[in-house]
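Q: For a teaching session next week I want to show students how multiple molecules come together into a single three-dimensional assembly. I've collected the sequence lines for a complex. Could you give me the predicted C-alpha cells for the whole thing so I can convert them for display?
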Amino acid sequence: MEIFTTAANLHAWSMAQKRAGLKVGLVPTMGYLHEGHLSLIREALKHCDKVAVSIFVNPTQFAPNEDYDAYPHKEEDDIALCEGEGAAAVFLPTPAEMYPTDASTWVEETVLAKGYCGAQRPIHFRGVCTVVAKLFNIAAPDVAVFGQKDFQQVAVIRRMVRDLNFPIEIIRAPIIRDEDGLAKSSRNTYLSADARKAALSLSRALFAAKAAVEQGERSAATLEASIRATTTAEGWLPDYVNVVDSETLMPLETVTPGTSAILLACRREGLRLIDNILL
Ligand code: AMP
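A: Of course. Below is the structure for the complete assembly, covering every listed component.
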C-alpha cells in the first residue's frame, strides 16, 4: 500500500492507475477509523480496482468553538486498518498541503446545506464541500463512497457533484452500528459510560419509528413527537428531529415509505450525536 502526503504524488498515482485501465475509488475520512469507515473501503472495492483512503481532519469544517484541536487521532493504526482492508493508497496531507495560507476560494452548496446540521453549524458544509472538491481534483476518482451516517452530507455532496459536473459516481453506504444499536462514530470516544448508555435512545427511537411506519403510521408529527420524548427522557435533547424527503431533504408532513427518512441530532453535556433511518 502506498502512503502519500502530497497532492501531486496522489494525483500522479491515480493517473497511472487510470492509464493502466483501472478504476479508482476514493473514501474520504477524518481518521480514527472504525468499522463504519472500513465498510466504505469494502464497498468501494466492489466498484473499483484501486481504493485510496484520505485521512484528513479538515480545519475549515470546524467552527472555532468546535472540537478541531481535540479530534482524536491514531494514524499508525489507521494505516494498518486501511492496508488490512485492501486499500491501495492512503493520503495523509497536512493542513498546509491542503490549504495555501492565502487560499481564497470556497465551494458552497446553498440549499440542502442550510437546515438540520447546517443550521447548527453554519460554516460546516462549506468546509466539507471545499475539501471534498479538492480531494476529488487531487485523487481524480471514478467512484467515491460516503456513509449514510452523515445523511445530509451525502445529499449535499451529490448535489455538488451534479451541479459542478464532477465525473464521479457517489455511493451511499449503510450505517454501521455497535451491536446495541449506537451508530459508530469517531466522536463516540467522548461519551461517558452514562451518556453512552443513554445514547441508545437515539437508535431505539428511530427503530421504533420505522416499526410504527411498517404498522401503518404516516404522520410525521406523531413520529417526531415520539422520538423527542424517547431521547429527552434519557437526557439527549433534540436539536432537530425531522421526517424528510430522502433526496431533497424537504420536511414532510406525511411519510412516503421508500422515499422518506428521519434525521436526528441530539445534545447532552456539550456532546452532539446524529443518527438517521430510511423509512
Ligand atoms: P468521518 O471520518 O467521520 O468524517 O467519516 C468519514 C466517512 O465515514 C463519512 O462518509 C461518514 O459518513 C462515514 N461513516 C462514519 N461513521 C459511519 C458509520 N457508522 N457507518 C457508515 N459510515 C460511516
